[in-house]
Amino acid sequence: MAKDKEKFVREITSRDDDFAQWYTDVVLKAEMADYAPVRGCMIIRPYGFAVWERIKEEADRRFKATGHTNAYFPMLIPEHLLQKEVDHFDGFAPEVLWVTHGGDEELAERLIVRPTSETIINTMYSKWVQTYRDLPILINQWCSVFRWEKTTRPFLRTVEFLWQEGHTVHETYEDAQEETLRMHEIYRQVIEDEMAVPVILGKKSDSERFAGADATYTLEAMMHDGKALQSGTSHNLGQNFAKMFDIQFQDREGKLATAWTTSWGISTRLIGGLIMVHGDDRGMVMPPHVAPTQVIIVPIALHKEGVQEKAQELYDSLNGRFTVKLDDRTEYSPGWKFNQWELKGVPLRIEIGPKDIEKNQVVFVRRDTNEKIFVPMENLADQVDEMLETIQKDMFQAAKKRMEENTFTVKNFDEFKERMAAGNPFLKGMWCGDEECEAEIKDETTATIRCIPFDDKQEEIDTVCVHCGKPAKHMVYYAKAY
Amino acid sequence: MAKDKEKFVREITSRDDDFAQWYTDVVLKAEMADYAPVRGCMIIRPYGFAVWERIKEEADRRFKATGHTNAYFPMLIPEHLLQKEVDHFDGFAPEVLWVTHGGDEELAERLIVRPTSETIINTMYSKWVQTYRDLPILINQWCSVFRWEKTTRPFLRTVEFLWQEGHTVHETYEDAQEETLRMHEIYRQVIEDEMAVPVILGKKSDSERFAGADATYTLEAMMHDGKALQSGTSHNLGQNFAKMFDIQFQDREGKLATAWTTSWGISTRLIGGLIMVHGDDRGMVMPPHVAPTQVIIVPIALHKEGVQEKAQELYDSLNGRFTVKLDDRTEYSPGWKFNQWELKGVPLRIEIGPKDIEKNQVVFVRRDTNEKIFVPMENLADQVDEMLETIQKDMFQAAKKRMEENTFTVKNFDEFKERMAAGNPFLKGMWCGDEECEAEIKDETTATIRCIPFDDKQEEIDTVCVHCGKPAKHMVYYAKAY
């Protein structure tokens, strides 16, 4: 059964040749996910799920540090609740799944498999909120949601996906707005600081905002093919849901007031983004902060005296401080192992063989740059720590540089179309604020307004709209999107 | 709005007067859960969910330490998959929920909302398992499952509940059996050592075992009313699912072999057990290891100079090492706060007032015994730690003593019926091993065989069955159950 003469078969399509196929290959071969025998659903395999657990930990820690608690609300929602908020219902109705029978019986009222939980959660909030002293309510839920999508791809768009949805209630518009932006910033931290994925921040145009929201704030990341991925959203729901679901409270003056609510979410879609930002032709590349395994130790010439012992010693000195694995399988050659752990994207490989032991050193090999570095054995854990932080920063910087290099300023629609035809860039350009004009741009180029950046990032590129030539209201980012 | 003259309204029915109503009162008033506007479903509120998070952490940590990883499988299962294993399907069919429509379309094949995931997971395992080198597969999933139950009660029996389900594949029967018992032991640790709930361990009789299993091992806890609660189960599934789902592998001799599988689960039902074992007429009583808040600091005479500062100092010295809250609200009196935190079951209350500051002491008040202890301020954190461990142990011992005092040995059926009529005891008695005899006992007394204890706990009470008088096969525990 020895594999030392077997060739490692990677079977990954080149990223430049066929980006979509490359993506699917990486998802499957790195065992991030698999197709399920249920239309449009996926299995999140242990290696992919471990990434989700890391993202979850990083997000949950920040949610709790800002006063949020977790809870669980039912997955099945009676039809009449969803219909209460008409805009919201219209937004989701075409893609909801319906439970109609329990055992052999037809149900008295059909149940919706939750596409999102505003309706059921706000129903409870109207019961729980009595006075201003009950506010704010800051609850989050980790769960799965369902959208009966026609075209699906693992992580990016699936019928069922895992997410968290935060739902909060506040006394004032200002409190709700502050919360909306606070969570938006927490998402930025998780995505940029932990996943090493740079994002463009801003507000959605009216046509792209969440059904039932007053304002939706987004984080848009650029994939390796240049397309945008909406990576998280935070919604100021104004009083829309509070009015429909009667969330009223006695205010500080003793008067009855209507509350203000928010909701916000990130999902397993982030893992799709992680792959499409960092992955390469050898497979996955994991940023150290969310890597299921941060360090893989591969002993060279395992049969030579002292190698196994030294490798084990290394492992023991790193384990606990890092997530580390020792690959001391005898049926695979070191080369085979290198390939396998590269495919999995483990950020740092440590090689140790008889020569290294002699010189009291180990070899670091970085997954992101393939760089090989000889490192003295002293204070190894500190050096590993430093190296992982360097990899984390470099991966972020490389992705950021790529995004910047693929972002262009356009002043007129010819330039716009030319740039868009030449690839999938992010285009910074002016917009009149008119929905029809936005729709025309989409029709002609398939690019959409990804976001209206915050005021401090607005640039006055021109005074008129890049498409219609009417007076411009904002600078926006245009891009094709997943 | 000052509450200092308001009476704290507890509104909890006496446990001895009406156990069922007492339970519901505690669930609702302690804000563990609330009824949902969906038949048979509940909302797990933040305080109840925090207990689940603690249980989850304790279980998950042990799963991972024994080599298991988490994954996620779809919640919707195509009808034909569930029908593959006939025994299994028959067991669940009457209570499954059916998804029949997506948007306006009727689905080509109906989908089941998972009641448990053996069928979908084993379908994937048959694809993933090729050789003995792929084994064992040790995967766990945290998710929610659905049973269209007629009669429901928060935590104990709900249409949707949260659980974990482990699903493993092994080379041999012995490996599967070892795994089944390993997880059974981990459940014992979580339930006894963390939740302070003593359990009787053993195997289920054939009529009570999981649909499709060769053997089901259970953990049975005694509630305060004497009834049993099945608190976790671990199943050796033999080759039943492996055969139906074609989980075959090349064995060490190069021959094609059929695998052996297990599954095991605990659920939010455990929280119902926690309430019914430890709760009292003042509300919830949390064992320190799973308490969302372990220590509540209540300052006395907050308006007096130095009290707020000293209370804050205490908080700072304990926070991080324990989950601690400082209740420095000015609109509630100390007495009101005592009542509220007692209702919530916080294991340790620390009071600090001007007199205590003078004497350089604090007051500990134990939730479980109501005991008041004056404690010098030196090394307070260590003393808190010790006190919490004492409470944890004492709670377990108190519950164990109660269980033992309410467990009786019976030698004949008159004694059996007499004991059962006088309360809800656990009865140790002999059994012939016959299913019909078991069914008759149930018909006549509503008591069932909770488990057949392991060999080392078997006692030869008699040589004949307590009911039919035929030769006895085992000593078993009989009880009425939730």
UniProtKB/TrEMBL annotation, chains A, B:
Residues of the Aminoacyl-transfer RNA synthetases class-II family profile domain: 45-287
Q: Which GO terms describe its biological process?
A: prolyl-tRNA aminoacylation
Reaction catalysed? tRNA(Pro) + L-proline + ATP = L-prolyl-tRNA(Pro) + AMP + diphosphate
Molecular function terms from GO: ATP binding; catalytic activity, acting on a protein; proline-tRNA ligase activity; transferase activity
Gene Ontology CC terms, in alphabetical order: aminoacyl-tRNA synthetase multienzyme complex; cytoplasm
| InterPro entries reported in the protein's UniProt record | aa-tRNA-synt_IIb, aa-tRNA-synth_II, aa-tRNA-synth_II/BPL/LPL, Anticodon-bd, Anticodon-bd_dom_sf, Pro-tRNA-ligase_IIa, Pro-tRNA-ligase_IIa_arc-type, Pro-tRNA_ligase_II_C
In terms of Pfam families, this protein maps to: HGTP_anticodon (PF03129), ProRS-C_1 (PF09180), tRNA-synt_2b (PF00587)
Q: What does this protein do?
A: Catalyzes the attachment of proline to tRNA(Pro) in a two-step reaction: proline is first activated by ATP to form Pro-AMP and then transferred to the acceptor end of tRNA(Pro).
What the record says about family reads: Belongs to the class-II aminoacyl-tRNA synthetase family. ProS type 3 subfamily.
In Swiss-Prot or TrEMBL terms, this protein is called Proline--tRNA ligase
Q: What is the lineage of its organism?
A: Bacteria, Bacillati, Bacillota, Tissierellia, Tissierellales
